[in-house]
Amino acid sequence: MVDIERPAPGPSEVLVLVHATGPNPTNWKPSTLPMPEEAARLGVQHRLMLVEAGQGGMLAVADLARAGQLRPIIEANFPWEQAAKAHELGDTGRTTGKLVLVVS
User: Fold this and answer.
1) pTM of structure
2) What is the pLDDT of residues 61-96, one digit of tens each?
């Protein structure tokens, strides 16, 4: 990030000052999802589903799960004692599946 000078609003514009925000990873992380062409070459299906946060979207995902139409991709399982290692791997942005913490 870089600081820039505060812009002056133009005609019919309003300057909004935001005091805090959180980055959305989809806006700054490059996608590592396989492209449809690569999926076809490998003989696998490729689908991308974006779900807005909220009950309606989560209920739709739950319906797909109940119907057996979702298959989680597990990158790795970690014992609870290695939670820090799992977190470090997740921070790399290079995982292709979920990281699972196993509590025994």
Assistant:
1) 0.42
2) 889 889 988 888 899 999 999 999 999 999 888 888
The CATH number covering residue 70 comes to 3.90.180.10
How many structural domains are present in the chain? Answer: 1
| Encoded tokens for 73 | 């991709």
Are 18 and 25 within 8 A, CB to CB? no
Distance, in Å, from the CA atom of 5 to the CA atom of 88, rounded to the nearest integer, reads 35
- pLDDT, tens digit, 9 for 90 and up, residues 19-77: 655 666 555 555 665 577 777 887 777 666 665 677 887 888 889 889 988 888 899 99
The answer to whether residue 6 is domain-embedded is no
Burial of 50 (0-12, 13-18, 19+ CB in 10 A): exposed
Q: Does a structural domain hold residue 35? A: yes
**Sequence-ordered list of residues with C-beta below 8 angstroms from that of 74, at least 6 positions apart, any chain:** 97, 98, 100
Range of the domain at 50: 25-102
